Amino acid sequence: MKTTFLSVFATILLFSACTQNAEKKVITKTDTVFVSNSSEHLSMATLWFQNSAEAAALYHQAYNIAKIRLDEKIKFHKKSDKKLAIITDLDETAIDNSPFQAKLIKENVHYSRDRWNAWVNEGRAKATPGAVEFFNYAASKGVKVIYLSNREDGTLPATIKNMKKLGFPNTVPENYLLKTKKSDKTERRAMVLKDYEVILYLGDNLLDFDEFFGQRTGADLGRKSVEERKAEFGNTFIVFPNPMYGNWEKAIYGGTYAKSADEKAKNRLEILQD
Questions:
Q1: Cβ atoms of residues 245 and 41 within 8 Å
Q2: Minimal CA–CA distance to 144: which of 87, 194, 190?
Q3: Partner of 232 at 20 to 30 A CA spacing, among 8, 68, 216, 271?
Q4: How far apart are CA 126 and CA 120, in angstroms?
Q5: Across the strands, what pairs with 196?
Q6: CA–CA separation, 120 vs 171, rounded Å?
Q7: Are 268 and 75 in contact (CB under 8 A)?
Q8: Is 91 helix (H, G, I), strand (E, B) or coil?
């Protein structure tokens, strides 16, 4: 009887120890894969962008509206010495870089200029839904397509190669205005306006349209500035969805990315409205 009791007791202890070890293993795995991944908060936004039918629908909707506006503006255009042009952003407007965001999440690393340039130079970005068709339609109507992007100027050859492969029009160097020193696009837009009448601006960030919006990005993350110029959206300004990154995120962090992962997580929670 005593022997049997000791055997049962030993079995219970062994089972308990195994259970605790298993629990510890699960917790450790969870911590490693999720909790300690400081880029994991991007996962739902990236998943939505890559997989949801709604994301594709919004792109088609935006380009459908752009085509309607383009036809209207051509029809009612008054003859002048200036030819017509469209200014468009590249990333997350005309081309899709969401695999770069996915890579950051999976490797548990943050954005850096070197990582971004390495991705750009791979030339693997795909076209966003409706983009190639719209820009070729605009070009067929005699409207110049100007690609205005904050990709670094040194990535121009890889960018052009990528765009040509996807079938975009006007893929010659003079139609690309990439960043040399300033992220502010005002001067580059002014260069285009010297020779062209710009009838449409396309982008996923308000600063793709006018630096006005950046100057008014405060505690409301720029919403007041949008209200001030709401008549231009869907008319001259065509906006595309990008929940993965943008100036809105920088505003959440108080205007700087130079914070720890914990501080950023705290800021994101603080700004949530319930």
A1: no
A2: 87
A3: 271
A4: 11
A5: 83
A6: 16
A7: no
A8: strand
Helix axis angle, 98-107 relative to 43-51, nearest 10°?
Answer: 150
Pairing of strands 95-96, 126-127: antiparallel
pLDDT tens, per residue, the chain with 274 residues: 444 444 444 444 444 444 444 444 343 333 444 456 878 889 999 999 999 999 999 999 999 999 999 999 999 888 877 999 999 999 999 999 999 999 999 999 989 999 999 999 999 999 999 999 999 999 999 999 999 999 999 999 999 999 999 999 999 999 999 999 999 999 999 999 999 999 999 999 999 999 998 876 666 778 889 999 999 999 999 999 999 999 888 888 988 889 998 999 999 999 899 9
Compute the distance between CA of residue 39 and CA of residue 37 in angstroms, rounded to an integer: 5
Q: Which amino acid is at 264?
A: K
Model's pTM, two decimal places? 0.85
Long-range contacts of 48-51 (CB under 8 A, 24+ apart): 48/243, 49/96, 49/98, 49/101, 49/241, 49/242, 49/243, 49/244, 50/98, 50/102
Residues with Cβ within 8 Å of residue 196, at least 6 apart in sequence: 82, 83, 84, 85, 144, 146
Distance CA 60, CA 66 (A): 10
